[in-house]
UniProtKB/TrEMBL annotation:
This is Alkyl transferase. Pfam families: Prenyltransf. It is an enzyme of class 2 (transferase). Belongs to the UPP synthase family. One of its GO terms (molecular function) is ditrans,polycis-polyprenyl diphosphate synthase [(2E,6E)-farnesyl diphosphate specific] activity. The keyword Metal-binding does not apply. GO terms for biological process: polyprenol biosynthetic process. PANTHER family: DEHYDRODOLICHYL DIPHOSPHATE SYNTHASE COMPLEX SUBUNIT DHDDS, DEHYDRODOLICHYL DIPHOSPHATE SYNTHASE FAMILY MEMBER. Its EC number is 2.5.1.-. NCBIfam families: uppS.
Length: 276
C-alpha cells in the first residue's frame, strides 16, 4: 500500500519534470553544467548529524541532480569532488572522504545505476596519484567500464585545482616540444589547450557553487571565462530540481549576451588561437 503510494507520487513527479523539460526546451539548453559541491559539513552541523553524514547525503543530491540534468538534455556535467587543497584537512576527514568516494565510485558502473541506464561516460581528472589506492583503483575501473558510453558525460575533478591543471599542461607542452627538438617554437594557446585535462570537454555554460559563496576556489579557471555563474544559498545536500530550473531560466535570459561575448572574443583572437 505504502509502496504503491510512493510509486504513484514518483510517477506523477516524473511526469511533471518532463512537462517542465518541454517548456524549458523552447529556449537554449546548456550543453555543459559544472558544480562546486560546497556546504556538506555545514549541512551535517545544521541538522546535528554525525560528521561525514553531510557528504553522504550530498552524494544522493548529486545523483538526483545528475538525473535531472541529463533528462533535460544537458550533455556534460562536471563536478569538483575533491580539491588538492582539501588534502590539508584533518587526516581522519581525508580518510573518511577517500573511503566514501571509493564506495560511491564503485557503485557508479553497476548495472542498475543511472550511469548505465543513461549511457554516461565517466572520467576522472586531476592528480589521481594523490588519491588513496582504493579510490584510485575504483576510478580507473569506472573509467574503463564506461569508456564506450557516449550519450552523456560526467567529468569528476578529484585531487584537482585549476592552477595545477594549467601548470601540468604547460609542462606537457614543453616536454612535447623538447621531444621534437622544436626549441625555437613559441608556446601558443592551442598548444596549452590541447594538453589540459579537460581538453575534449566543451567549456561550461553554467558554473554553480552552492552555499552562497561567490568564489571559484581554483575550479575551471581556464574554462569558465564565459560561463554563467550561479551561487544559490542552499548547501549542496539541499540542492534540488527547482534550483536547476532557476539556473536554466537565468542562463536563457542571459544567453544573447553570453553568445555575443564569446563571438567577440573569438573575433579578437589576440593569442594566436585558431578559430573554428
Ligand atoms: C565540499 O564540502 C565537498 C567535498 C569535499 C566533497 C563532496 C563530494 C561528494 C558529495 C560525493 C562525491 C562523489 C563521487 C562519486 C566522487 P565541504 O566539505 O567543504 O563542506 P563545508 O563547506 O560545509 O565545510
Ligand atoms: Mg567548503
Amino acid at each position: 500500500m505504502v509502496l504503491g503510494i510512493g510509486w504513484t507520487i514518483n510517477h506523477i513527479f516524473s511526469l511533471f519534470r518532463r512537462c517542465i523539460y518541454v517548456i524549458l526546451s523552447v529556449g537554449p539548453i546548456p550543453n555543459h553544467i559544472a558544480f562546486i559541491l560546497d556546504g556538506n559539513r555545514r549541512y551535517a552541523k545544521k541538522h546535528k548529524l554525525r560528521e561525514g553524514a553531510g557528504h553522504n547525503i550530498g552524494f544522493l543530491s548529486l545523483t538526483s541532480m545528475l538525473q535531472c540534468c541529463y533528462e533535460l538534455g544537458v550533455k556534460h556535467v562536471t563536478i569538483y569532488a575533491f580539491s588538492i587543497d582539501n588534502f590539508k584537512r584533518r587526516p581522519e576527514e581525508i580518510r573518511y572522504l577517500m573511503d566514501l568516494m571509493q564506495e560511491k565510485i564503485e557503485f557508479l558502473p553497476k548495472e542498475e545505476n543511472l550511469v548505465n541506464r543513461l549511457g554516461i561516460r565517466v572520467q576522472f581528472f586531476g592528480n589521481l596519484k594523490l588519491l588513496s589506492e582504493g579510490a584510485r583503483d575504483s576510478a580507473q575501473s569506472a573509467m574503463s567500464a564506461t569508456a564506450t558510453n557516449s550519450k552523456a558525460f560526467l567529468s569528476i575533478c578529484v585531487a584537482y585545482t585549476s592552477t595545477h591543471e594549467i601548470v601540468h599542461a604547460v609542462e606537457q607542452v614543453c616536454k612535447e616540444k623538447k621531444q621534437r627538438k622544436a626549441w625555437n617554437e613559441h608556446v601558443n594557446l592551442d598548444d596549452v589547450e590541447r594538453q589540459m585535462y579537460l581538453a575534449n570537454i566543451p567549456e561550461p555554460d553554467i558554473l554553480v557553487r552552492t552555499s552562497g559563496a561567490n568564489r571559484l576556489s581554483n575550479f575551471l579557471l581556464w574554462q569558465s571565462a564565459y560561463a554563467h555563474l550561479y551561487s544559490p544559498s542552499a548547501l549542496w545536500p539541499e540542492i534540488s530540481f527547482w534550483h536547476l530550473i532557476w539556473m536554466v531560466l537565468n542562463y536563457q535570459r542571459n544567453y544573447g549576451y553570453l553568445e555575443k561575448q564569446q563571438q567577440n572574443m573569438d573575433h579578437v583572437n589576440v593569442f594566436g588561437r585558431s578559430n573554428p
